[in-house]
């Protein structure tokens, strides 16, 4: 809270961390949309690319020519090293006092960024997380099986973990920088269980978490998967969180 | 498509509510009704109130274990 | 406090209550025996109900897909003008 008092005079800066792997087209579209929807805000985009073979980095360099190298930072890593470390890698290079993390596959639309920022300013929350399961939010492109598993997974997590957040696996979030630094170091999970671990740990540590509705349009280019092994990973993650937090 | 999904949700809700009501009636209220009352015709003997859920639970658990086992075996094969 | 401890203590409290019920026999013993199973069945029904309700009220947004397509066209147009190579996908 002290930090906030100090920052009142200063303008907030937002660092948007986007991990990519083979998102050549999507990253260009995302960057354009971020610049379109965030006009009156000081921000930077940090692309953490895990050595995509499709030329994602070339596109990012071209985008730097258009928007300026100080607004778009390319912080590449040599090979696929996982989502969790991608965020801490991006965080090292972030200069803002707030950090936004989002997916690069356009399932998270940048037009919701202003509502995240507004919510944070109104409530002074440490974390604002996007939720798909409230009115105003929503999902597009899921079949019955996908809906059923996601509802089942959610009910299971709500009953077992009591996290106080309605959408645990969503990964469109705004963090106060110090909070993200604090939470990210204690997280060990991989994949999307990592998102769940972050928010559960933050909630256990007593950070103020707020939610805003977002819509989720399943991947336009490429395909997302949900099979048996994802379900088992989820159950393992749930059991781990039950014991560890 | 959309409507069908909602219908499935509705059916699930109805099933769960009716199971709950039936079971509550069976376990909580029935013991206070005299044994020769006609309503007893609609319920199995009380032992089954214990046996059915236990069997269902064991069956569900073993299905879950089989599912997890199969998935784990598959992923191990992929790695090897 | 670890979360598992919270849940365990809740379970222990319920167990204690149940054993108390069995011992004092305020209600017939045959009834008290069924209490844990009754609770499990209720929990299962609650879970199923929540899944059902969640599925029934699952918020969907077909209009968003259309809007996104528009945004994509607009973005491609703009980026192409600025010389960003977005042609091949």
Automatic annotation (TrEMBL), chain A:
InterPro entries: DPM1-like (IPR039528), Glyco_trans_2-like (IPR001173), Nucleotide-diphossugar_trans (IPR029044)
KW Endoplasmic reticulum (keyword) present: yes
Catalysed reactions, as listed in the record: a di-trans,poly-cis-dolichyl phosphate + GDP-alpha-D-mannose = a di-trans,poly-cis-dolichyl beta-D-mannosyl phosphate + GDP
This protein's name: Dolichol-phosphate mannosyltransferase subunit 1
Cell compartments where the protein resides: Endoplasmic reticulum
Xref: SUPFAM superfamilies: Nucleotide-diphospho-sugar transferases (SSF53448)
Alphabetical list of CDD domains matching this protein: DPM1_like
Pathway: Protein modification; protein glycosylation
Source organism of the structure: Stephania japonica
Gene Ontology MF terms: dolichyl-phosphate beta-D-mannosyltransferase activity
Any Gene Ontology biological process: GPI anchor biosynthetic process
EC number of this enzyme: 2.4.1.83
Family annotation (Gene3D superfamilies): Spore Coat Polysaccharide Biosynthesis Protein SpsA, Chain A (3.90.550.10)
PANTHER family listed in its UniProt record: DOLICHOL-PHOSPHATE MANNOSYLTRANSFERASE SUBUNIT 1 (PTHR43398:SF1)
GO cellular component, one term: endoplasmic reticulum membrane
UniProt KW Glycosyltransferase keyword: yes
Role according to the record: Transfers mannose from GDP-mannose to dolichol monophosphate to form dolichol phosphate mannose (Dol-P-Man) which is the mannosyl donor in pathways leading to N-glycosylation, glycosyl phosphatidylinositol membrane anchoring, and O-mannosylation of proteins.
Family: Belongs to the glycosyltransferase 2 family.
UniProt subunit comment: Component of the dolichol-phosphate mannose (DPM) synthase complex.
UniProt KW keywords: Endoplasmic reticulum, Glycosyltransferase, Transferase
Domain Glycosyltransferase 2-like: 15-183
Family annotation (Pfam families): Glycos_transf_2
UniProtKB/TrEMBL annotation, chain B:
Membrane topology term: Multi-pass membrane protein
Pfam family, one: DPM2
Source superkingdom: Eukaryota
Transmembrane regions listed in the UniProt entry: 7-29, 49-73
GO terms of molecular function: enzyme regulator activity
InterPro entries: DPM2
Main location per the UniProt record: endoplasmic reticulum
Metabolic or biological pathway, per its Swiss-Prot or TrEMBL entry: Protein modification; protein glycosylation
Subcellular location: Endoplasmic reticulum membrane
CC terms in the record's Gene Ontology section: dolichol-phosphate-mannose synthase complex; endoplasmic reticulum membrane
Keywords: Endoplasmic reticulum, Membrane, Transmembrane, Transmembrane helix
GO terms, biological process: dolichol phosphate mannose biosynthetic process; GPI anchor biosynthetic process
Subunit structure: Component of the dolichol-phosphate mannose (DPM) synthase complex.
Family: Belongs to the DPM2 family.
Biological role stated in the UniProt entry: Regulatory subunit of the dolichol-phosphate mannose (DPM) synthase complex; essential for the ER localization.
Protein name: Dolichol phosphate-mannose biosynthesis regulatory protein
Organism the protein comes from: Stephania japonica
From TrEMBL, chain C:
Known partners and oligomeric status: Component of the dolichol-phosphate mannose (DPM) synthase complex.
Membrane topology type: Multi-pass membrane protein
Transmembrane segments: 7-27, 33-55
Record-level GO BP terms: GPI anchor biosynthetic process
Keyword Transmembrane found: yes
A family per Pfam: DPM3
Major localisation: endoplasmic reticulum
Official protein name in the record: Dolichol-phosphate mannosyltransferase subunit 3
Species assigned in the record: Stephania japonica
Family, similarity comment: Belongs to the DPM3 family.
Compartment(s) of residence: Endoplasmic reticulum membrane
Keywords, in A-Z order: Endoplasmic reticulum, Membrane, Transmembrane, Transmembrane helix
């Amino acid at each position: 809270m002290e930090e906030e008092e100090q920052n009142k005079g200063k303008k907030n800066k937002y660092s948007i961390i986007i991990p990519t792997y083979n998102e050549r087209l999507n990253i260009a579209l995302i960057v354009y949309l971020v610049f379109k929807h965030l006009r009156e805000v000081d921000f930077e985009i940090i692309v953490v690319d895990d050595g995509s073979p499709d030329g994602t980095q070339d596109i990012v360099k071209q985008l730097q020519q258009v928007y300026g190298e100080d607004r778009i930072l390319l912080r590449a890593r040599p090979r696929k090293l996982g989502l969790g470390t991608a965020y801490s890698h991006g965080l090292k290079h972030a200069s803002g006092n707030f950090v936004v993390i989002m997916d690069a596959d356009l399932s998270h639309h940048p037009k919701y960024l202003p509502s995240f920022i507004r919510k944070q300013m109104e409530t002074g929350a440490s974390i604002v997380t996007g939720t798909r399961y409230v009115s105003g939010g929503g999902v597009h492109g899921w079949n019955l099986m996908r809906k059923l598993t996601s509802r089942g997974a959610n009910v299971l997590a709500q009953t077992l973990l009591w996290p106080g957040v309605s959408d645990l696996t969503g990964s469109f979030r705004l963090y106060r920088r110090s909070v993200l630094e604090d939470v990210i170091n204690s997280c060990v999970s991989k994949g999307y269980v990592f998102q769940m671990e972050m928010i559960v740990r933050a909630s256990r540590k007593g950070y103020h978490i707020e939610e805003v509705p977002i819509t989720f349009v399943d991947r336009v280019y490429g395909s997302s998967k949900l099979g048996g092994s994802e379900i088992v990973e989820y159950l393992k993650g749930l059991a781990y969180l039950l014991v560890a937090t | 498509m959309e409507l069908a999904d909602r219908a499935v949700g509705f059916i699930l809700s109805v099933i769960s509510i009716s199971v709950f009501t039936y079971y509550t009636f069976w376990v909580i209220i029935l013991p206070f009704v005299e044994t020769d009352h006609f309503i007893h015709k609609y319920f199995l003997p009380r032992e089954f109130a214990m046996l059915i859920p236990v069997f269902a639970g064991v069956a569900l658990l073993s299905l879950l274990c089989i599912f997890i086992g199969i998935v784990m075996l598959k992923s191990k094969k992929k790695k090897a | 406090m670890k979360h598992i401890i919270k849940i365990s203590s809740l379970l222990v409290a319920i167990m204690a209550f149940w054993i108390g019920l069995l011992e004092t026999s305020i209600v017939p013993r045959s009834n008290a025996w069924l209490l844990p199973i009754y609770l499990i069945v209720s929990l299962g029904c609650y879970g199923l109900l929540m899944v059902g309700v969640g599925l029934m009220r699952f918020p969907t947004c077909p209009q968003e897909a259309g809007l996104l397509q528009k945004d994509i066209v607009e973005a491609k147009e703009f980026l192409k003008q600025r010389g960003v190579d977005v042609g091949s996908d």
